[in-house]
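User: Before I run my own analysis I want an independent prediction to cross-check against. Here's the chain; please return only the structure tokens and, at the end, one sentence I can use as a sanity check.
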Amino acid sequence: MINAVALRAEVHDQIKKIGYADIVVGIPSFNNAKTIGHVVRAIQVGLAKYFPRNKAVIVNSDGGSSDGTIGMVQNTSIEDFDAILLHRRVEPISKIAFPYAGIPGKGSAFRSIFEVAKMLDAKACVVVDSDLRSITPEWIELLVKPVLEGGFDYVAPLYHRHKFDGTITNSIVYPLTRTLYGRRVRQPIGGDFGFSGKLAQFYLTQDVWESDVARFGIDIWMTTTAMANGFKVAQSFLGAKIHDAKDPGADLSSMLYQVVSATFELMEHHADTWMPIRGSEPVTTFGFEYTVGLEHVNVNTARMLNLFREGLNNLREIWLDILGAGDFREVERLGTLSDAEFEFPLSLWVRVIYDYAIAFHKRKLPVEHLIKSLTPLYVGKTASFILMAESMNAVEAEAEIEKLCVEFESSKDYLINSWKK
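Assistant: Structure tokens:
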């Protein structure tokens, strides 16, 4: 049995006083005092409006904030229920806020939330990011109700995003996880999820809490673990996701490393599950889809293509070893094209990702070196998509992502045959 996470004595005392909960809403945080108050208010209104008779607890699992985040959670409340057209709840909402224990990272924060949900024997749980600016009370209904009333164990978010946003999801994570596990969960690393108490308890039994899952791999791990273990999965349309801007100077290869290494590690763990699966099917989708205004994403494709060409010069031997002579020649040909002509073929991109998954499986290079060598290829593929989709509307751009998914699915035998060699 996996050891329970260490919760402070006062947290145990609070849990004991509360006794049980129907719904637990978790917010992992680290120095989010400026935004977390809005998130807490939206949760309180959502619980009051849609679940007035259910006993609910808000759990803030904090990474040691020094800006008063925990105090902001404790002191945020709805002052005037009449002003937002609500009656006071039959059941009051409890709050628990504490610094989590364990490896610093989002996964450790989630583990503490799962532990509280288990102790309270919660029926339904939600986790939402602490820097959300676009969260509404309806998110709580859309993430909780499929669990409480629909019998679903896992509810992924479905957002509208700008066509040039979320490119790691669009070009790698969504097509690959859809192909591997046969379920079309569009945002497998969305960050805001609903899940059953039963699934929370299952997560706690998994021996991953001293690994990279505890640091940064929790989102893809939760989604994949639910799909690969036969839990009932759905998604809910939440509108737009607007949160604190990420540093545009941040190292892209670090983000790619975190997401792709976690995805590949899960492939290792679940190989017996995904190998027999062919094709994919939609998952049940809740919520009313509507068009949302999205901020434009500015992209410098000339700089991206320069990075791709630099990779071709600097990583030639590594790429030749991973991709093989035939595909490497195709990549070399791309390096000779002008910016206006540049187009990364879908079939080649699919083989690149499969070849990298196989290289990971066969431990051809240290993991960080391997996946960071993928960065210039990913940047080239992203630039190709941006150049092609510049004049497309959102529906047309999504259709191109669907074409990529179909290519991943139709080439799955290539992955399996190479994996077994």
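Sanity check: The CA atoms of residues 362 and 419 lie 8 Å apart.
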